[in-house]
Amino acid sequence: MKISFRLTCPLGVDVHGAMTDRCSTAFFWILCSGAKWRDLPERFGPWKTVYQRFRQWRDDGTLERILSRLHLKLREDGYMDLDTWMADSTSIRATRSAAGGGKKGLSGAVRPCPWAKPRRPDDQDPPGLRYQRRALSFLLSPGQHADPRYLVPVMEQIRLPGHAGRPRKRCRHLLAGRGYDSDRLRPYCDRYGIRPAIRRRQMHRRPKPGLPRLFERPRYRRRNVIERLFGWMKEKRRLCTRYDKLAESYRAMVTLACIERCLRIYFSDEA
User: Fold this and answer.
1) Is residue 13 within 8 Å of 65, Cβ to Cβ?
2) Rounded distance, CA 41 to CA 37, Å?
3) Alpha-helical runs (H) found in the chain
């Protein structure tokens, strides 16, 4: 895949020239192949130059701005369902080369454990685009942490921009697995008018006053969309196993995969 100069200009991101095209293509090559930066083919230029450009885009937020502009474009073209969002998590194996990134800041975010969990709410596909899945937001966390404690933070950082009005931050329906069944999560949904479709765990609960919550089984069956999204993400060898020492670098790779997912809507007839 190649991001051309004609594509990057309308997105409003300050990138220029053929060197940007070559570096962006090299980023996607690294993402798909999972190779080391030193093994970058010569057609992409010096690997140090490409890596320095990747670090620059990672640190100054260029990748996040590109993803935000793509979300705006998808929302304008009607490729986003703003009513139903989904949430799930997955575990990623970290190799020995991912250790030793430091103890402060993001570099130590996943240091205590060999697994990291990217958590990502995903938007449901509108009719006619059944196999298009797009990630809205994600977080990295230690693998031993429970899933419900990170759902609220990942929901709070969602900002879907639009040309008119405020960015969209809430949905009407939230689909999540049984692991997100939490007494703290449901009051959060009630506060913002979100109807959760979360299957309850088979455990003893204290009886509470009022009517029991209804479970929308037909809507819950649509949750396989985000499962397929995780399956597609793990086909990227740079994501299915973590080789980066810094959590910032791994987060940038996940953001790059989200960008590719959005671009496939316009440049591929099959997702």
Assistant:
1) yes
2) 9
3) 5-8, 17-33, 47-60, 62-76, 148-156, 185-191, 217-220, 224-233, 237-240, 247-267
Residues contacting 83, CB < 8 A, separation 6+: 124, 171, 172, 173
Cβ distance 271 to 135 under 8 Å?
no
pLDDT the model gives residue 30: 94
CB 105 within 8 A of CB 111: no
Sign (positive/negative) of CA torsion 243, 97, 41, 248? positive
CA–CA dist 144, 236 (Å, integer): 24
How many Cα atoms occupy the beta-carbon half-sphere of 176 within 13 Å? 29
Query: DSSP per residue over 68-101, as a string?
Result: HHHHHHHHHTT---SSEEEE-B--EEE-GGG---
Confidence band of 224 (pLDDT split at 50, 70, 90):
confident
Determine contact, residues 124/86, Cβ cutoff 8 Å. yes
CA distances from 24 to 13, 49, 66, 204 (A): 13, 12, 12, 52
**Tokens describing residue 75:** 């929302």
* CA 53-64-167 angle, 5° bins: 160
pLDDT at 216 (0 to 100): 82
14-57 pLDDT, tens digit per residue, is 445 556 778 889 999 999 999 999 999 999 989 999 999 999 99
Helix (H, G, I), strand (E, B), or coil: what is residue 117?
strand
156 Cβ partners below 8 Å, 6+ apart?
169
Could you report the per-residue pLDDT of 72-117, keeping only the tens digit for each? Answer: 888 888 888 888 899 888 888 887 777 766 555 443 333 323 344 4
Q: What is the pLDDT of residue 64?
A: 92
